[in-house]
Here is the input.
Amino acid sequence: MRVLAIQYGNHDCSACIYDGEIKNYFLEERYSGKKHDLHHFEIYKNLLRVKDPVDLIVLCYFGDRTFMYDGGLKYLNMFLKAYKKKHGKIPKVIKDKRHHLAHAAGAYYNSGFDKALVMVVDGSGSLDKLSFEAESIYVAEGLKFKEIYKNFIKLFPENMDLPTELDRLKKLHPDAEIHRESMMGLGYLYSAGAVMMGETALQAGKVMGISSYGNDSNQTHIVKDLFVDDMMFHCREVNLFFYGYGPDNFKDIAQEIFGKKGVNVCDEITKENYQPYADYAKAVQKDTQNVILRLVRKVLSETGIKKLCFTGGYAMNIITNNLLVETFPDVEFYFEPMATDVGISVGTAMLHWRLNTKDLKPRPLTTTAFHGYKYDLSKFRGLGAGKEEVARLLAESKSVAVYDGYAEAGQRALGNRSILFNPLNPQGRDIVNRIKRREWYRPFAACVLEEDAHLYFDIKVASRFMTQCYKVTTDLIPAVTHVDKTCRVQTVVDGHLYDILQEFKKLTGHGILLNTSFNLAGDPLVETPQQALDTLANSELDYLWFPETLQLFS
Here is the structure.
């Protein structure tokens, strides 16, 4: 049984083929070069390159507006006709608009847990007439996903208070505690914050990055009055509905939330003007994480289940993730590395494969390196260089980009599409931010030998997918130490990255490196070897290394 799931939405469209393992995965932005691309032109081309046919096609989306861009349905039909010409027939095609369930299925099946709570938190999920999903919690076991909590966003202001709508939702979700008082999901609050900083709404991570520069004493009443109570996020003051993720769509609502509190939309965050933005970012971080903590505490108490999967866009919030681990030490957490909508096609394919095969064998995620193809590198000739030479360059504080095998899916580069640097260099963060053309306040992650992680961090559990941050316990690694003395961590146990870390340790005494994604600001992760070479040529990067062929380029 081979299942093809194609995700449709207004950003981060992807496709996944699954037959008990991920066979193919394609993300539109990696080929188009347009960050968060909502189209499928390159996805369709790549799917037609796949040799073996599939048995089922699932179109996953979040509302009745299935195809968000002009001509979307036309292009799908063109793909299906081309598919029939290649394979002789079109398999069964079904639709599945259960957005939060797709998130939940991906996290649960990737976790390897038997029975677990699954919490989904994002900007919005499935659209159902007058309401969007905002937060959902499930009890997952085998093929069953029992809804126990649902918070919905009110869609249209003129229909916000229809008493029949809440009754309708309760009938549709009889097992769940239902709330419908919000005008925004937690993720949307972060999106509005990003727009205030002159970014697009999908750059919520920048809000988290600058939040560490905020002052607690300055955040009173910046965000708190947006909450109706201490348990759920009910944005009572916002009376605007917005649709889409462009800056123009969000400016009005961003102003509505923050402008009246003395913060205005900014073109650029500088070292001279950052403080009020850092203050409200910290308020966003603290108030939203408190909602998450209270919600987790509530469902743990009600169910007694001690395993919890966290997914949805908000699950990329490493500060909250670490706080969850610290607050609930008796709970086993799994943080999905493909937590944003890039993982919707993966979760959908996994779910429908299991529904059809009834195969419930645990298959915990071991790698995210399955995007695209392994390209032929033999025609690219540089200087011969092994891991020893690469480690020597890194010890000399040269920047080295690594390109190997399949690209990582999701937002975290874990060694196949990474830029590495010496974390011991006090100027390291500024140097790499300049290379990547990123904002001055952006922190960097560290990759570290798993057996040595305790030497640098107050680490509770391994973090092989870079989904958590930890307190830094030494002053030896300034390049990866954020202003709040934390670091996002990848613990490494094998592969070429492990080998480089070992060689670097032989030279410096430290098995740790700065690791950031191989791309420049505003660009998707590098996909092809030619893109890798072009990025090297058009940036201040010092070197590019192909571990597979042991070729070094400068």
